C-alpha cells in the first residue's frame, strides 16, 4: 500500500485529498430520488394542513359562531396544526436542505389557502397575488433542480 506524501512538521498535504468529489453508486442515486419525492410530498401535506388549520381558526373565532362550532373549530385547528408540524418535520428529514423544505411548505400553504379561501369564503385573488405565486414557483423550480457539476480546479504543479 502506497503511503500518502507527508510534508515536514506533520502538516496536512493538499495532495492527500483530491479535488474530485466522489460519485454515489447508482443504487444510492435512486434512493436519493425517492427521498426527494417523499420530502416534497411531506412538505406539500404540511402546507395544506397549515392552511386548513388557519381556515378552521378563522371559522372558530368568527363573530357569529355558536359555542359548538367554536369548540369543534378549536379541536380541528389543534389537530391540523399538529399534523402540519409532523409532516414538516418528516419533510425536513427527507429534504436535501431546510431552505428547500421551507419554500415548498410556503408554496403549498399559499396555494391551499387560496383554494380554501375561494371554497369557504368566496375570496378571489388579484393578478398581482398570482404573479407573486408564480415567482415563488420559479424560485422553487430553481432550488429543486439538480445543480450542474462544478468545474474541476486545475491541478497544482508539483515542484
Q: What structural class results from the helix and strand content? A: mainly alpha
Distance between the termini: 24 Å
The parts where pLDDT drops under 50 for at least 5 residues are none
How many separate helices?
4
Biggest pleated sheet: none
How would you sum up this structure in a few lines?
The protein is mainly alpha-helical and 159 residues long. 66% of the residues lie in helices and 0% in strands.
Task: Please characterize this protein's 3D structure.
By secondary structure, the chain is mostly helical. Helices cover 66% and strands 0% of the residues. It contains 4 helices and no strands. The longest helix is centred in the first third of the chain and has 35 residues, at 26-60. It is flat and about 60 Å long. The two termini are 24 Å apart.
Brief descriptors of the model:
mainly alpha; 159 residues
What's the helix and strand layout?
Blueprint: H1 26-60, H2 67-94, H3 98-121, H4 127-144
Helix pairs in contact: 1-2, 1-3, 3-4
Amino acid at each position: 500500500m502506497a503511503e500518502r506524501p507527508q510534508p515536514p512538521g506533520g502538516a496536512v498535504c493538499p495532495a492527500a485529498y483530491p479535488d474530485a468529489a466522489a460519485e454515489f453508486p447508482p443504487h444510492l442515486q435512486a434512493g436519493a430520488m425517492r427521498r426527494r419525492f417523499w420530502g416534497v410530498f411531506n412538505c406539500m401535506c404540511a402546507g395544506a394542513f397549515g392552511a386548513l388549520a388557519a381556515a378552521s381558526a378563522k371559522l372558530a373565532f368568527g363573530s357569529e359562531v355558536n359555542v359548538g362550532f367554536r369548540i369543534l373549530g378549536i379541536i380541528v385547528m389543534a389537530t391540523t396544526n399538529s399534523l402540519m408540524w409532523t409532516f414538516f418535520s418528516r419533510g425536513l428529514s427527507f429534504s436535501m436542505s431546510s431552505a428547500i423544505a421551507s419554500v415548498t411548505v410556503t408554496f403549498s400553504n399559499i396555494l391551499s389557502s387560496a383554494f380554501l379561501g375561494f371554497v369557504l369564503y368566496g375570496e378571489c385573488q388579484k393578478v398581482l397575488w398570482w404573479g407573486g405565486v408564480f415567482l415563488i414557483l420559479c424560485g422553487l423550480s430553481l432550488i429543486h433542480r439538480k445543480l450542474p457539476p462544478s468545474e474541476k480546479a486545475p491541478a497544482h504543479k508539483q515542484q
